[in-house]
Design goal:
This protein is of the alpha/beta class. The protein is built from twelve helices and twelve strands.
Length: 329
């Protein structure tokens, strides 16, 4: 059984490839990634040595129909798991066209190619940001209205709706997963947790948007990967599954936990002008996925944050090389 993973050199995609190859021995993975700034071949160091011909990599753009057709002609894939996406909200505000190209056009191309080539299942990896912002109470369910606030979340909403429309129109076997904020190893340093860890390690100011009271529900990337695999093999076609970590935290409290873990002063915190369209609170209700897929998050957030901090402490060469390549020095 061969699976096509798109965006497999990114944070979640690379963790997923490692996870499925380790836990599902019959599975083989083809990874297609165009290698933008956040796609890092080093995220998969050692995978070929450990898993041999069960893993292969192709550099290609998911929005290029000729490249995707050629790949699906070469291999018969059981499923496509679509992680490929531009994902940083700030970048979407500055350059929304890139997000439309990858997240909307790319998803459309993949869906069309999958249908032509008889791919049995298509898993669209999405985000809780498609739901917009919550008040002080309540959680997002799979029935919550879609109210994206940024070009990034709007592009992901469009991709989700395209995928679900292909199920309704063509009978295509599509599953959509939406998760809360991920954390863990191999995350690009522009995201909150690795950014704060690295800046704290270097005794640099830690920029916190607005009043720092925005709330996010954090899920360890391994728990998310386990949920995706459950949806891949057990999910019902045409269905959306939410995955959350049951770990709501105020952003400023996350930053303070990181500083305390690293033995750094809270005086490094620097409040900056708030992000445009900054959603106030996200929280995911995962009860449907827990019930239907027999899945639940296993990581405690504070322990997971400590192990993540340790990973960045012990892998300085990884993130220094990534920052240098991205022109951040």
């Amino acid at each position: 059984m061969r699976i096509l993973v798109t965006g497999g050199c990114g944070f979640i995609g690379s963790n997923f490839i490692r996870y499925i190859l380790e836990h599902y021995k019959p599975a083989s993975v083809s990874n297609v990634d165009v290698l933008t700034y956040a796609g890092n071949m080093a995220n998969l160091d050692g995978v070929v040595e450990e898993h041999g011909d069960r893993y292969e990599f192709f550099k290609a753009d998911i929005a290029n129909a000729d490249q995707m057709d050629a790949l699906m002609t070469e291999h018969r894939f059981y499923a496509i798991v679509n992680f490929a996406a531009e994902s940083h909200v700030d970048r979407s505000i500055n350059s929304p066209q890139n997000f439309i190209h990858t997240n909307v056009v790319g998803t459309s191309v993949l869906l069309d190619c999958a249908r032509r080539h008889g791919v049995q299942r298509f898993v669209q990896i999405s985000t809780d940001e498609v739901y917009g912002s919550l008040g002080e109470t309540g959680r997002f369910t799979e029935q919550s209205p879609l109210e994206p606030s940024s070009p990034y979340s709007a592009s992901k909403t469009g991709a989700d709706l395209l995928a679900l429309a292909c199920h309704k129109t063509f009978g295509q076997d599509v599953v959509v997963t939406r998760c809360s904020n991920n954390y863990g190893p191999y995350q690009f340093p522009e995201k909150l947790i690795p950014l704060m860890i690295i800046k704290a390690m270097r005794d640099e100011p830690l920029p916190v948007y607005g009043d720092g009271r925005n709330v996010r529900d954090w899920i360890h990337v391994e728990d998310h990967c386990a949920g995706i695999i459950a949806a891949l093999f057990e999910g019902k076609a045409g269905t959306v599954y939410n995955f959350g970590g049951n770990s709501e935290m105020v952003n400023i409290d996350v930053v303070k936990l990181i500083l305390d873990k690293l033995g750094k002063s809270h005086s490094l915190i620097s409040y900056v002008t708030d992000r445009l369209g900054h959603d106030r609170r996200y929280a995911i209700d995962s009860s449907f996925a827990e019930r239907e897929l027999n899945w639940k998050p296993l990581h405690n957030f504070k322990e997971g944050l400590e192990s993540t901090s340790d990973w960045y402490l012990n892998n300085k060469g990884w993130w220094e090389a990534l920052l240098e390549r991205a022109g951040r020095y």
